[in-house]
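Students often ask why we bother encoding 3D structure as a string. The short answer is that it lets us treat folding as translation between two languages. Here is a chain of 181 residues written in the first language.
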Amino acid sequence: MAHFTLWDCSKASAGSLAVLLLSGGMAWAEARWSQGVFPVAVFSGYTSHFGPRIGPFGGREPHHGIDIAAPLGSPIRNWWGGVVQQVINDGHCGLGLVIQSGPYEHVYCHLSGSVQGGVYRSGSVSLQAGNRLASGTLIGHVGVSGRSTGPHLHWGVRYGGRWLNPAAILRAMAASQRQGR
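And here it is in the second language, the structure alphabet:
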């Protein structure tokens, strides 16, 4: 299994970033990562890791994120400030959002609520492409939409079209927050 890590891309060229992403090195704990927010307010555990896995229906497949179990309807918060790029309503992700934060895209799948006319709604949340969001903003609620076998958030992060391991991002965030205390 390939191991992907997070690195502060502002200090690297695209070529060196690709080498670092594939090298399996540690995620760097920098002060900037302390601004990130864990995306699920009521955490129950991780139900699927990043990378190759046996999918929910028995086949081997890549998994481009982590699955974070939480009670149905639990609040989901925006990991990092950014702009809603896409509202998703399909049979795989289910109801979801893609949010752009500089060179990063973060993807949230299996949300509860509804999508009509390109607008995602869940409780007091109403989002569409172009909406600006601060870090920690309520963006939805845990559901079971799409290809899901139970309530959870599928959270994925891409940089330059490459999927990163969100667990490495969370470790870098936690290390930065511990250093900031």
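Translate back mentally: Residues 39-162 form a domain with the Glucose Permease (Domain IIA) fold (CATH 2.70.70.10). Keep this in mind for the problem set.
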